[in-house]
UniProtKB/TrEMBL annotation:
Residues 1-266 form the Helicase ATP-binding domain. It comes from Dactylosporangium roseum. One of its GO terms (molecular function) is helicase activity. Gene3D superfamilies: P-loop containing nucleotide triphosphate hydrolases. Keywords: ATP-binding, Helicase, Hydrolase, Nucleotide-binding. This is ATP-dependent DNA helicase. Belongs to the helicase family. DinG subfamily. InterPro entries: ATP-dep_Helicase_C (IPR006555), DinG/Rad3-like (IPR045028), Helic_SF1/SF2_ATP-bd_DinG/Rad3 (IPR014013), P-loop_NTPase (IPR027417).
Length: 651
């Protein structure tokens, strides 16, 4: 992998690398990064990987190569502005502001409001003391932490910042200092969200660089899609009216309030889900009012100047009105490449949301040009091929040729040959490489598909599936991680196991903080941890604390997921299969991530049990999904699986 990356940089070509858990892929891309002139940027999807790089891998690497390089390599972490405390916001936050801020975000329960205001006020005071001592102002270094509502009062989103030149605290700004450190570092570690914002804003945030390494690359398209997503709520419109009222005529502010009232009416009875065709009449009226009122308000606010009475608040008002006006204009346009839907949650919050149908074109234009991109993950070769991930990243797809077996150097040369083929057929030359895994999956684990179970029909857990789960857990005596497709199914599983497996501790996501649950699961061999989608990627429990992973059903996107549904419909309308092109690849990535929870080291052993018979019986996509998984010993027979679990229990 390291040799292939070096070759890719030399040839200015892009590289997709699948590297399983335990391959040491972070060192494989960090080592050649030190040979690249100028900073190298590494982007991660999770805080866990970011922390691993900064706290463990990079310091070890710096120690190892300092003597060879004749200097110690430097590295820095680059995050969005909102991760750092803003001294201007902190100075302007009074003891009364937390109370005002609660109403500012639409809080409508006055009896709770006074207590909340007092609690937030205390947190803001603690933040003020901490900021005076902190060297970085980074929220991740604040221990103990504070509520999101308190942090929002002392941080500054990028769109609301007046800039260092116009800010009275520009010379002391923590966010500016982090950017300065990044410009001087050999390796800059950032996250997919900031990388997405950087691409969408013309690469003004991350320092210029020749090499970009995207780790956890299977997450990038979704993060770019999220960064391109926008929403409108009545509360946002009301807040914008209040913020701009000091700078505009009352009539102008009232127009924004009227737009908010009209949006409230439009969302009152609208069912959740995707909007197709022309927008509903009342929603269109609300958007038109917002567009006209927003333009008037922007004219009234005018330019933000350094000698304004309060340039920070004025910039906040201008930025908020500008953002909402652009969103309204985008929704009014209702372009074919956007998807619009109504969103409602259990707390009664309602919003109208817009997002791009696809970000492949955006990535094609903004991700790959003027730098070499190495995208790596444990789950890139879906169905044994890189085509699906390549398309999602905006790369042209060429016919894949299996990597040659042999030494790493031979594999690297094979990657170069495939790059030559790509150059002949596409503007963006790229190659792919699967470096395999150090684990002997066929000897370390079993993939068991309960093919005798009926096909899942509801979002809950069927009685036959519950019985199968109980028998597996009883055979092992705990040590099971249950990954469920819905909260309802996870709760039903916990109820059944608690009733039928006395002596086994059942931990259910949501009943306590997740880090506490994971720690208890690691420490108690007689426990099971059950949860939903966030556990499918976020849990790392090597050793015998986790020797059984149970998956209740194949993780296809729900039919009411607006973006997935719209993308499927677009493929269908073009004559293809939306299910095969959209739903199956999503399920493949999720399933591979969930299955990957089992084997985390060379000594781990265990069973992955899938209680969804379609993984065996579905023609076409069943084989595709299995080909996306590690090569476990495969069976559909329950007896040898229970026997293996009983032997693990006795060991």
């Amino acid at each position: 992998m390291a040799e292939a990356i070096t070759t890719a940089v030399e040839r200015e070509e892009h590289l997709l690398v699948q590297a399983g858990t335990g391959t040491g892929k972070s060192l494989a891309y960090l080592v050649p990064s030190l040979l690249v002139e100028g900073p190298v940027v590494v982007s991660t999807a999770t805080l866990a990987l970011q922390s691993q790089l900064v706290d463990h891998d990079l310091p070890r690497l710096a120690d190892a190569v300092e003597r060879m390089l004749g200097r110690r390599p430097t590295f820095a972490v680059l995050k969005g502005r909102h991760h750092y405390v803003c001294l201007a916001r902190l100075e302007g936050t009074s003891a009364d502001e937390p109370a005002d801020a609660l109403f500012d975000v639409g809080e409508s329960r006055p009896t709770r409001w006074l207590g909340e205001a007092g609690r937030l006020g205390k947190q803001v005071e603690r933040l003020r003391d901490w900021a005076m001592e902190s060297e970085t102002g980074d929220r991740d270094e604040l221990d103990p932490g504070v509520d999101d509502s308190a942090w929002k009062l002392v941080s500054m989103p990028a769109r609301e910042c007046v800039g260092a030149q116009r800010c009275p605290y520009g010379a002391e700004c923590f966010a500016e200092a982090s950017r300065a450190r990044a410009r001087e570092a050999d390796i800059v570690v950032t996250n997919h969200s900031l990388l997405a914002v950087d691409m969408l804003t013309g690469r003004q945030i991350i320092p210029p660089h020749r090499l970009l390494v995207v780790d956890e690359a299977h997450e990038l398209a979704d993060r770019v899609s999220s960064a391109s997503q926008a929403e409108l709520t009545p509360e946002l419109l009301e807040r914008a009216a209040r913020r701009c009222r000091p700078y505009v005529d009352d009539e102008v502010a009232d127009r924004l309030m009227e737009a908010g009232d009209t949006l409230t009416v439009a969302l009152a009875d609208a069912p959740a889900g995707r909007l197709t065709g022309a927008l509903p009449t009342v929603l269109g009226e609300a958007l038109t009012l917002l567009d006209a009122g927003g333009r008037k308000a922007l004219d009234g606010v005018g330019e933000v100047k350094s000698d304004d009475h309060d340039p920070v608040r004025k910039q906040q008002a201008k930025a908020m009105v500008s953002d909402l006006t652009k969103i309204a204009q985008r929704m009014i346009a209702n372009a074919e490449h956007d998807v619009i839907w109504i969103e409602r949650d259990d707390r009664g919050r309602r919003a109208v949301v817009i997002a791009p149908l696809s970000v492949a074109g955006t990535l094609n234009i903004h991700l790959f040009h003027e730098r070499t991109v190495v995208a790596t993950s444990a789950t890139l070769a879906l169905g044994g091929q890189f085509d699906t991930v390549a398309r999602s990243l905006g790369l042209p797809v060429v016919v894949e040729k299996p990597a040659a077996a042999g030494t790493p150097a031979e594999a690297a040369r094979e990657a170069v040959i495939r790059a030559d083929a790509a150059r002949d057929t596409a503007d963006l030359a790229w190659s792919s490489l699967d470096v395999g895994s150090p684990f002997d999956y066929a000897k370390q684990g079993i993939l068991y598909v309960a093919a005798h179970l009926p096909r899942p029909q509801t979002s809950g857990l069927s009685e036959p599936a519950a019985n199968e789960m109980v028998e597996l857990v009883q055979a092992l005596g705990g040590r099971a991680l249950g990954l469920f497709s819905s909260r309802k199914a996870a709760e039903r599983a916990a109820e059944v196991l608690r009733a039928r497996t006395p002596g086994i501790t059942i931990l259910l996501q949501g009943e306590e903080a997740l880090p506490i649950l994971v720690r208890r699961f690691r420490e108690d061999r007689n426990s099971c941890l059950l949860g939903v989608m966030s556990l499918w990627q976020g849990v790392d429990v090597p050793g015998d604390a986790c020797q059984l992973v149970i998956i209740d059903r194949l993780p296809f996107p729900r039919p009411d997921e607006p973006l997935a549904a719209a993308r499927s419909a677009a493929v269908d309308s073009a004559g293809g299969s939306g299910f095969a092109a959209v739903s199956v690849p999503i399920a493949a990535v999720r399933l591979a991530q969930g299955v990957g929870r089992l084997i985390r080291s060379r000594t781990d052993k265990g069973v992955v049990a899938v209680l969804d018979s379609r993984l065996e019986t579905a023609r076409g996509y069943g084989a595709y999904l299995r080909a996306s998984l590690p090569p476990f010993w495969y069976t559909t027979k329950p007896e040898p699986v229970r026997g293996a679990l009983r032997r693990l229990s006795a060991s």
